[in-house]
Predict the 3D structure of the following.
Amino acid sequence: MDTLNFDGSCDPNPGGIMGFGWVINWSTGKAPTEGSKEKKPSPSNTNNVAEYTALKEGISNYLKLGGKGPLQVYGDSKLVINQMSGTWKINNQNLLEINKQIASEIKKHDLKVKFSWVPREQNTTADRLAMPKSRLKSSSKSPSKASSVAPSERKFVADVNSASVSSNMRLKINELNTDPSPGFKSFADLKVGGFDSFSRKKLEELQKEAGKKASSIVQTEFPKNITHQASALRWMLRGLSTDLAVRKVQIDVEISKKKKR
């Protein structure tokens, strides 16, 4: 059976640049087909619209390339997968319109499609393709680019499985730590959601817990900015690898600057 993985992103969400990525794996054994597109900022742009559009583009390209089905579709958006499967209702008019367009295309070509949700770590190629080119360029300029360190080579200050974090955060941090090339959206979606045991700790206390090496890393990456240093150390103590903790703070700073514009 042919398979299609899709992913979409909106940076910032809502209103920012939308990126769409998809990967087609052919049952015939020929090389996988990858594709990506992006759309300029617009008030109507959202992560969910991006996810739906990525699916639409993926199926459209599959058909253009001669795909006949059956087709197994994988995505890490539970909303899109469950709405396309008919198990969740659609209350947003924009999403309903794209849903209808996809359904019409499937019916027109009598395409047999099955939709299945997968966790983000099983959708990494589509996630990478969904990152707008401008994001990839800005990431490549950073010496702390997340993809520059293989998962097996990452360094840790704390074990996330024993750290004082929620089960949901533990899952997200584990996904990032094992992802060879986590995308912009993965970092943006990682949030404390309030306060935890690390939130109110001052820099001096964090430095003592994290150790000299970790403290030296954040001082190098964020010279003279103790707020950013403290934030990176908090993520390290929550169990995020040192390179990913730095990248997380860099992305948070970038998002914050965009919101102030």
Observations:
- The longest strand covers residues 2-11.
- The chain has eleven helices and five strands.
- The beta strands are 2-11, 17-25, 33-39, 71-75, 113-117.
